[in-house]
């Protein structure tokens, strides 16, 4: 009873995500909905036939039996078609939603993605997606049963307008109760959804922090009791409370149904001549209607859960701004010069209300030049590298590439200039480089060059294993960088995990070779033994460049006595 109004709410109160999904599968949804409506209508028609068969005369029975049989087959077929189509719709919605989020994540500005965080993306891709897909499974149940209930009400109106009027009053009461419960319940489901995003971060700590948790019993207990267990409990509690409110209102609806039936049977139908016949007719409708009504009352909460998840996905994907134009299909850029002019980036730390400012910085890079970027921990080296390679757009100042200002229209193209190995690099198990080289041959040649030929091979465009030490995995990343063969190489503390022998290889063979190939190279390093090998050395302190020495470093003592050539306007 409550249903028609709430069905209306759910059909029209769509989030952008549901709208998108519905628009993607419009035809399938229309087909499945028609099959559901046909199923509901045939079911009511079947009921009408059962009712009239009870009082039918013998000569009509044969014809009625045929119609009954035909309707029963139609009920079966429409049920099958509706459910298969909705199952397909559910699976399709799930897949569409996953690709929708994945594409949004890929296109999102890097800084936005950093701010959203991996846990929220994971939560959206897994649990929220599943809830939304389930909407398409509960939708046919809601639709079919709504049609059956509506049909029953019409049938009732034909039997008696007084009964129909009473039904409308009961629907009003039911809706009010449901609405009040709905407002409260949604708040709890929302809280559960927010907590679930945090829970996914704790799930990651379970695997990422596996070593620490095993080595420290107190930490393990505290992590489970105060962090993970607490979060699991909050999600359980909030969701149970929210869903219980819905179930409470469903029970209220249920009570109203029986109150309604009682009123009709004992109050409205008085001592009329055909009492037994009229009672039989009503009893049949009631019995037939109770099942669909209950199914409706139970499935609407599931649709609400989907709604909350869809809102959550919506919120996450909406903040994934994609301000840059994708520049697929353009040929890779070549490098003449890169100029950083007054570039600046700020990090705001909400908890401590502190701001870290990097810049303003002026720098120039050209091909065939090796630049070392040095400085203490947290001085801003990686941040500068992220700005240089176009992962962060400068908040102030600009980057000029081959004489052209880098902006939203060409930043994606500009980024194709760089092969990078950040300290938190990621290795894809497949080699995704598409430079036209024979990946297997070239990959294996490079593996031999980096002394890894006995550990790992490239086979069918993939590394045979990634189960290697951190230093070896970094060498694999170097193989990938070589295969990319871009004009600019950026290494963020690459050599930190290498043994002394390979450090020598890196600084004395790999880097000079890259220079000879005409590559521009930026090396973030703490290896002061090798600083003198740089063509230029720049030092960062508290987000400012304090030294930009163009001269070749002959020894590190000359470095220590060098005067800063770049004024720091940001000194703290
Ligand atoms: N993702 C981030 N969000 C917010 N603040 C950040 C983030 N990354 C870095 N910071 C802030 O910026 C400062 C500089 O960090 P950055 O990683 O650039 O330093 P770094 O010189 O590369 O340090 P290290 O030598 O330890 O790698 C840090 O002190 C930190 O406060």
Automatic annotation (TrEMBL):
GO terms for molecular function: ATP binding. The keyword DNA repair does not apply. Pfam families: ABC_membrane (PF00664), ABC_tran (PF00005). Keywords: ATP-binding, Cell membrane, Membrane, Nucleotide-binding, Transmembrane, Transmembrane helix. The chain crosses the membrane at residues 28-52, 64-86, 135-157, 163-181, 245-270, 276-298. PROSITE patterns: ABC_TM1F, ABC_TRANSPORTER_1, ABC_TRANSPORTER_2. The keyword Protein biosynthesis does not apply. It is a multi-pass membrane protein. Residues 30-305 form the ABC transmembrane type-1 domain. InterPro entries: AAA+_ATPase, ABC1_TM_dom, ABC1_TM_sf, ABC_transporter-like_ATP-bd, ABC_transporter-like_CS, Cyc_pep_transpt_SyrD/YojI, P-loop_NTPase, Type_1_exporter. It is found in: Cell membrane. Coiled coil: none annotated. Residues 338-567 form the ABC transporter domain. PANTHER family: ATP-BINDING CASSETTE SUB-FAMILY B, ATP-BINDING CASSETTE SUB-FAMILY B MEMBER 6. NCBIfam families: cyc_pep_trnsptr. This is ATP-binding cassette transporter.
